[in-house]
Structure formats: structure tokens, C-alpha cells
From TrEMBL, chain A:
Pfam families the record matches: Trm112p (PF03966)
InterPro entries in the cross-refs: Trm112-like (IPR005651)
Taxonomic path: Bacteria, Bacillati, Chloroflexota, Tepidiformia, Tepidiformales
Protein name per the record: Methytransferase partner Trm112
Coiled-coil features, chain-numbered ranges: none
UniProtKB/TrEMBL annotation, chain B:
Gene3D superfamilies: Vaccinia Virus protein VP39
The keyword Metal-binding appears for this protein: no
An example Gene Ontology biological process: methylation
Record-given protein name: Class I SAM-dependent methyltransferase
Recorded GO MF terms: methyltransferase activity
CDD domains with a match to the protein in the record: AdoMet_MTases
PANTHER family: 2-METHOXY-6-POLYPRENYL-1,4-BENZOQUINOL METHYLASE, MITOCHONDRIAL (PTHR43591:SF24), METHYLTRANSFERASE (PTHR43591)
Occurrences of domain Methyltransferase type (ranges): 44-140
InterPro entries found in the cross-reference section: Methyltransf_11 (IPR013216), SAM-dependent_MTases_sf (IPR029063)
Keywords: Methyltransferase, Transferase
Keyword Hydrolase: no
Top-rank taxon, per record: Bacteria
Length: 62, 251
């Protein structure tokens, strides 16, 4: 995931602003970390460079 | 609802990466043109699956964001993009009915062979409108049900028997009505018929034998009008599906 994407991303639940935490980068790409919503506090994990932006009730087969 | 699709397509990911229609269908260049891509656009591809539409757009756009609810499909798509050295696609897990994007940030949104899985298609259309800039284009390609009510029922019945995550193949007229009601100027720009081998079609979704038997029973009982509408074939068994591309411009 490129940092540029942060400019257009928002929380899928409340559309709040997201803050990137605990980021690990490789060759300019964010490979892992957590996007935290500054509005509702929901957390979205980034794994192997792919952010999981599903609303929490839809994760894990919900 | 997204859970059904994830379960179904997590297992089907490899089969979809190689199916020739998905990888190289004649509707792909139509989609590029209908989306108005010139090389400068930011594009969102919904239900990207194996990523074929996203990769086709990526060659004609500045950047493509490709989303799907199935992580296995996204991983397969990211591998395929990397092997083709396409570097301007961002993959992410996201639900089309709850898009994680600010308003008006995309020049075009594409959605190919995915909309029949959406549990709440009107909500998806509203979300697409929200993330498109004014004048931005939504280009949708999917199997469309015939306008004839019985043929519509037949198609959606066999689709559901084949794949329990199937929701509905809408009629072209339904798409146009829904899109116009949501504030788009919509028109159908392309139609094609895709001839399918029944065994391959079922195998891609790992349809269990008892469901395949039900589908074949419906084929055997189909009256002449339905046999003609879907070009039902017996040996080897198969049928033909109407596919349409619809271009919708955000007012």
C-alpha cells in the first residue's frame, strides 16, 4: 500500500479520518500496520501490504 | 452477506485467474473506452476478483484502487499484477456497500462480473455516486437477465443453484432505472452473448453434483422459448449468457 492512498481513505463505518500506526515500510510501500479511525476508534489492519477496510461486522465471514 | 461471497470465491480464486472470458473478454476494451480513460485518471474497480479489469484499466489510468471482499482473490490478483510488472494498482479488502473513501475522489468506477453478488445493490450505487467526482463515470459489466419474466426467473434460478452467493442478474431495464433514480445518466453501450460449457461453468464454482443434476433437470424440462433464449445445448451440455456493459455518468 502506498502512502498516497492515505489521502483518499476514510473509515467505512463513520467516514472519519484515519491515522496510520505501527507502520512497517519496504521500498516505499506500507507492508503492515494499523489504520485507526480518529472518529469512532475502529481499527483496520494492513497485512502483506493489503489493508482490510471491511466494516468490523463483515470480517471473518460475518 | 459478504461472508457468503468470501467463502464461495476463496476456493474459486485459482479457477477465475485462468478463465479466458474473465482474462480477455471482448467487453474489456469497451469498458476502458466507456470509462473515458486517458492515462490521467484515478479509478476504483469494485469486486476485482482475479484483477483482470483493474489490470486492463491500469494501462490507461494513473492509478487503480482494486477492492474485493475475498482475501484469496486479492492475493491472486496482486501476484498476477506483480508478475506482469503492473505497479499502479492498490489492492484492498473493502465492501462495495461501505466504501472506505472520501467523497468525489475517483474519476471512474468499474465493476465487471461482480454486481450480481451485491446484497444491497442500491446502496452500492449510492456509494459509487458518492466517491465519484461530478462528471465521473461508473462502468458496469455483468450478466443481464432477459426482459421476459420467465427467462429472467430461469437464468437466476440456475445461477443460484450453481453458486449460493449469487443474488441477482438484473435486467438491463432495471439497471438503467436504478442508476437514473440515483442521479446518473445511464445507457447500455454494449451487449454480447457468452457461450458457456456447462461442466466448466459448474466446476469453477465447485457446484456439488446434486445441484448440477437439478440444473440439468431444469434444462431438460425447458420449453422451446427458454431453449432458444439461452441456446441450451445437450452434448456437451451448456448454454449462452447475455452480458451487457452500461455506462453511467454522475450528474
Amino acid at each position: 500500500m502506498e502512502r498516497l492512498l492515505l489521502e483518499i481513505l476514510c473509515c467505512p463505518v463513520c467516514r472519519g479520518e484515519l491515522e496510520l500506526r505501527d507502520a512497517e515500510e519496504a521500498e516505499g510501500e506500507i507492508m503492515s500496520g494499523t489504520l485507526v479511525c480518529l472518529g469512532c476508534g475502529e481499527r483496520y489492519p494492513i497485512t502483506d501490504g493489503i489493508p482490510n477496510m471491511l466494516p468490523p461486522d463483515q470480517r471473518n465471514g460475518g | 452477506m459478504a461472508g457468503d461471497v468470501r467463502e464461495q470465491f476463496g476456493q474459486a480464486a485459482a479457477a477465475y485467474a485462468t478463465f479466458s472470458y474473465h482474462a480477455s473478454g471482448p467487453d474489456l476494451p469497451v469498458i476502458i473506452e466507456a470509462a473515458g480513460l486517458t492515462g490521467a485518471e484515478t479509478v476504483l474497480d469494485l469486486g476485482t476478483g482475479a484483477g483482470h479489469t483493474a489490470m486492463a484499466c491500469a494501462r490507461h489510468a494513473a492509478r487503480v484502487v482494486a477492492v474485493d471482499v475475498t482475501p484469496e482473490m486479492l492475493a491472486a490478483a496482486a501476484d498476477l499484477a506483480a508478475s506482469r510488472r503492473i505497479g499502479n494498482i492498490e489492492f484492498q479488502e473493502a465492501d462495495a456497500a461501505h466504501l472506505p473513501f472520501e467523497d468525489g475522489v475517483f474519476d471512474a468506477v468499474t465493476c465487471r462480473v461482480a454486481a450480481h453478488h451485491f446484497a444491497d445493490v442500491r446502496r452500492v450505487i449510492d456509494e459509487v455516486r458518492r466517491v465519484l467526482r461530478p462528471g465521473g463515470r461508473f462502468v458496469l459489466a455483468d450478466t443481464v437477465a432477459p426482459e421476459d419474466a420467465k427467462a429472467d426467473t430461469f437464468l437466476n434460478t440456475i445461477e443460484y443453484l450453481r453458486d449460493p452467493s449469487h443474488v441477482r442478474d438484473y435486467r438491463g431495464s432495471e439497471w438503467l432505472r436504478m442508476l437514473r433514480a440515483a442521479g446518473f445518466e445511464a445507457e447500455m453501450v454494449y451487449r454480447m452473448v457468452l457461450a458457456l460449457d456447462g461442466a466448466d461453468w459448474a466446476a469453477r464454482q465447485r457446484t456439488p453434483p446434486e445441484k448440477v443434476a437439478m440444473i440439468r433437470h431444469l434444462f431438460a424440462e425447458a420449453p422451446p422459448a427458454l431453449r432458444a433464449a439461452f441456446e441450451l445445448r445437450d452434448a456437451p451440455w451448456g448454454f449462452s449468457q447475455p452480458i451487457a456493459v452500461i455506462r453511467a455518468v454522475r450528474a
